Amino acid sequence: MHITQLNRxxxxxLFSFLDKNSRKNLAETCHKLxxxxxDPLLWSLLNFHSPVxxxxxxxxxxxxxxxxxxxxxxxxxxxxxxxxxMKNSLQKDFCKRxxxxxxxxxxxxxxxxxxxxxxxxxxxxxxxDDCILQVLKNCPNLRSLKLENCVRITDHTLEAVTLHGxxxxxxxxxxxxxxxxxxxxxxxxxxxxxxxRADRSANMIPDSKPEKKLxxxxxxxxxVQL
Length: 226
Description:
This protein is an alpha/beta fold. The protein contains 9 helices and 6 strands; from the N terminus they run αααββααβαβαβαβα. It has 2 domains: 1-42, Monooxygenase (Up-down Bundle), CATH 1.20.1280; 44-224, Alpha-Beta Horseshoe (Leucine-rich repeat, LRR (right-handed beta-alpha superhelix)), CATH 3.80.10. It has a 6-stranded parallel β-sheet, covered by helices on one side. Keywords: Ubl conjugation pathway.
């Protein structure tokens, strides 16, 4: 039996085991398989592991999307989690391209995926407070927001949660070093039903110039005393 002789339910089941590239390659073989590829039921969950993946045409965004995860840890994107004042011009240009890619993608999610239930962003140093604000406003059913090591996330995101995260039940801001204890406490007070986790986020050693300079001066004085 040829694969195209299978009914639509069987084909959708088979496609569900394939990664995005394999789905796209198979869809290009015939019109029937292309229709399966374009079926919204196939795209309720999406995972990305590189900024480059966000620009490909091997997936579909639509109202069926419920679970979205963008996580990367490669050496190429580690520089994006460094504070801007520590970057050289080449690194800043590199990060700006990533930032535009991520913000444009999340804007598409806001416009096309109103039924999103879960968003996980890990290692995404390009994600801004404004991106998260737009997601919260445009995805009113969002129940889980997990942010890990997103250096640009601040208390503005926490405030947006209190204002627009009415459906939210889980909020993780692990290793988001620019959120504060005061911001976390406001979330606990205003959103008691939200399960909040912030392992090693608030009060982490900041990379801002004045505090970094002060820390280095103290270390130098200790060395002199020794």
